[in-house]
Structure formats: structure tokens, C-alpha cells
Amino acid sequence: MNKNMLAQALKVTMPVFFGYISIGIPFGLLVVNAGYPWWLSPLMGIAMFTGAGQFFAIALFSTGTVLSVIVLAEFLLSIRHIFYGLSLIERYKNHIRRRPYLMYSITDETFALVTTVDVPAGVDAGKFYNLVSFLDQSYWVIGCTIGAGAYEILEAYNLTQYLAGIDFALTALFVVLAVEQILSRHDVAGPVVGALICGFTVWLFKAGRFDSSGIIWVSICFGLAILFLLRGKSFYKNSRMENGDIVPSEKKDEISKAGTAAAVASMAAFVVLFILFSRPHNLLSAGTTKLSLASALVAVLASGAVVLATRVLPFAVFAKKNPSLFIRFIEKYAPPLIMMVLLVYCFKDVDYSSAGFYVPYFVCVAVSGIIHILFRNSMASIIGSTVLYMVLSRLWA
Q1: Before 280, cis peptide (omega within 30)?
Q2: Distance (Å, rounded) from C-alpha 137 to C-alpha 46?
Q3: What is the mean pLDDT of residues 245-256?
Q4: How many angstroms separate the CA atoms of 212 and 225, rounded?
Q5: CA angle, corner 171, sides to 80 and 216, nearest 5?
Q6: pTM score, two decimals?
Q7: Which of 222, 26, 220, 19 lies closest to 110, judged by CA?
Q8: Hey, how many other C-beta atoms are within 10 angstroms of the C-beta on 102?
Q9: Euclidean distance between CA atoms 191 and 194, whole angstroms
Q10: Cα gap 361→367, rounded to integer Å
Q11: Shortest CA distance to 346 belongs to which of 111, 214, 170?
Q12: CA 368, CA 372: separation in Å to the nearest integer?
């Protein structure tokens, strides 16, 4: 393996390491506390590899939710991966041998990295993306294993206190990547729309009117609908076909109508999804009795298959075709939109009841963005703001 490639991959994934370890440990504890053996935690990290989906699954397992509802819940929770896949078709199209794992390992953080960081000079892009994806999953599985197998030891020696606040590294990562998207593009429509829409859904969640499991992909769906209305007509009108010719004039109206239709369809989907996830209409209700280990294993495998299907679908349908204007629109506008949605989504867990809880968070978000704008150094921005948050959150508390 190219040592430079490994060094660069470790460098860009280090924030994910800190975030996944600090989040994976509580997940492992949750699995054991729910009455399941420790090995179920890393197994879920391998078979499903979806942080939010795994937390949600354990909650459903603990209350005896039927398999059909679990599968539906995991599908709805993972449907955002379809948008990720649409954005990665061109990036992954020349890496046929590695594409199965690249598709399987698409997560919020991995998508954010591969669409933003530069591949080191002289390094095969497919190998680099594969290594980044593998490292990210390894961090997650390690965190899940530590949490399930050793959390009692960490707690007994009071070592878990040193992990408090380290998960801010993921927020800082999304700040850096969102800033990169804004600085590298002349159109800020995507980030602005993403911030407004996700901010609204987060506010609804905090007000108790929306389920957290639908925030990301409902925001993406609605955000893309808005972008189709704002940018679809001009984008389609000025796009070039694969052979370099201007889109024929007789197709401009047809393409423009297609863009509008896509926006309307996205709006309709948003309304349906909003109803599904708005309380008290949330259909993902739980049961009363914990699932047996055998039933939980079946649910893990079924959920893993559903998650994988959402990641594979875009490649299976579109990868062998010349990219349509719709796909090219997604590739251009989805990454900055999604990056801002992921950043704003981090704010859902902030406690706004006291300035001592939210002021350090907002201060450190601003610091990470300012440092990156001034120095364009990801590690300095992420590590600096994370350490500052760990200090301020303790002092302020």
C-alpha cells in the first residue's frame, strides 16, 4: 500500500475516528443494556453500518416491534442514501472492481469526505476512496466493540468522562466540509436552502412536532425540490449533451417541464413524508416486548439488506447509462445542499434550555469555520475547535 495514500487517508478520516469512537461506545452499551450479547453490536456495525439506523433498530428491538415495521423504518431512515448515490455515480463509475464496497460503505460522513477532499497526487482515486471508506467503517466497528465489551471497565475507572465533548469532532468536520463547498462554488443556493429547510425541521423536532429519524432525508427531498424551482430551468437550458453540443432548442421546453415536474414530485413526496413523520401521525410505533436474539438477528440481516438496497439502487439504475440532465443536476447541486443539511442536523441534540449548554457549541462552530476560512487547514480547524469545545463545555457547566 502506498504509504502516502495511507497517511493522507488517516489524516482526512481522523475526525470521523474521534466521532465514531465516541458515538460507537454508547451504542455498544445500549446493545448490552437491552439484554443482547456483546457481539451483536459489532455485527450490526458490519451488516448494517448506519449509525442512526443502528440506534433506531435497537430501540425497536427493545420494544418488540414487528419485522415489517423495522424494515420500513430502516428504509425510510436510509432513503437519503439514494441521493448520495446519485451524486457519486460519476465519481465511482470508473472503479468497477471496488464499486461494490464503495456502494456498501456510503454513510453521511464517508459521502462528505469523498465529495470534498482531494485525492493525493499520483494515487489511484478508486483505491483512495476505498481506503477512506474502509477506515471509516473500521472506526465505527471498533467503537461498537469497545462499547459492548469494555464500557463497564471504562465506567468503573471513570474514564468515560474524558470522552465527553469529543463527538463535537463530527460537527466540526461538517463545518469544514460545508465551508469548502461554499468556497469552491459560486452559487450559494444549495447551502442556503439546506440551512433553512433543515433548520425548520430541527425546530419542529425540538418542538415535539417531528420525528428525528426523518430530518435529514426529508430536508434533502424538500431542498432539492426548491433547487429545481430556483435553478432547474436555467441549468437544463444551458446544459450540454455528452457530445458537447448545446441542448437542442426544441428540447429546452421539454427539459424545463421535466425539471418542474421533478420539483413538484419532490414537493409531493415531502408532504407525504412530513405526514408520516409528524406526530401524532408517526406510523413507526413500537410494541411492548423485547425481540428474542434469533428475531433480532433476522431483523439485523433484513435491515442490512434494506440499507444496502438504498445505496445500490442509484448505481443499478443509472450507472450504465449516460448521465441524464436530472443526474447531472443532482451531482452539481446535491453535495452542497446535503453538506449543509448534515451540519444543521447536528444542532438537533443541543440543549437550548441554558446558555451554559448551547453557547460553547455555537462559539466552537463559529471558531471551526473561521479557522478554516483563514488557514484552509482541516485538521487545525477540527482539532482546535473540538479541544476548545471540550474545555468550554466543562468550564461553562
Answers
A1: yes
A2: 8
A3: 49
A4: 21
A5: 20
A6: 0.70
A7: 19
A8: 24
A9: 5
A10: 10
A11: 170
A12: 6
Residue 337 phi/psi, 5-degree rounding, is -65, -50
Report pLDDT digits (tens) over 19-33.
888 778 878 877 887
For residues 386 and 165, the answer to whether their CB atoms sit within 8 Å is yes
Helix axis angle for 40-47 and 51-62, nearest 10°, is: 130
Characterize 110-148 residue by residue with b for buried, 16 or more Cβ atoms within 10 angstroms of its Cβ, and e for exposed: bbbbbbbbebbeebebbbbbbbbbbbbbebbbbbbbbbb
Grid look-up 433498530 returns 57
Buried-exposed string 330-360: b where 16+ CB fall within 10 A, e elsewhere: bbbbbbbbbbbbbbbbbbbebeeeeeeeeeb
Of the pLDDT bands very low, low, confident and very high (cuts 50, 70, 90), residue 243 is: very low
- Name the residue among 29, 75, 272, 45 with its Cα closest to residue 67: 75
Which of 385, 391, 322 minimizes the C-alpha distance to 168? 385
Q: How far is CA 104 from CA 58, 174, 191, in A?
A: 21, 22, 27
Q: Which of 168, 163, 88 is nearest to 346 (CA)?
A: 168
pLDDT of residue 79: 79
Give the CA distances from residue 14 to residues 11, 170, 231, in Å, rounded to whole numbers and listed in that order.
5, 10, 36
Q: Are 19 and 167 in contact (CB under 8 A)?
A: yes
DSSP 178-229: HHHHHHH-S--HHHHHHHHHHHHHHHHHHTTSB-GGGHHHHHHHHHHHHHII
Q: State the Cα angle at 298 between 294 and 299, rounded to 5°.
A: 115
Grid coordinates representing 60?
Answer: 425497536
3-class state of residue 376 by DSSP? coil
Alpha-carbon distance values, 158 to 152, 161, 163, 164 (Å): 10, 6, 10, 12
**How many CA atoms lie within 13 Å of 155's alpha carbon, on the beta-carbon side?**
10
Q: What is the pLDDT of residue 257?
A: 58
φ, ψ for residue 214 (rounded to 5)? -105, 0
Residue in this structure with the C-alpha cell 436555467, named with its chain if needed:
234
CA–CA separation, 343 vs 219, rounded Å?
A: 12
User: pLDDT digit string (tens) for 83-132?
Assistant: 898 889 888 988 888 999 999 999 988 998 998 888 888 888 999 999 99
* 244 DSSP assignment: S
- Count of beta carbons in the 10 Å neighbourhood of residue 246: 11
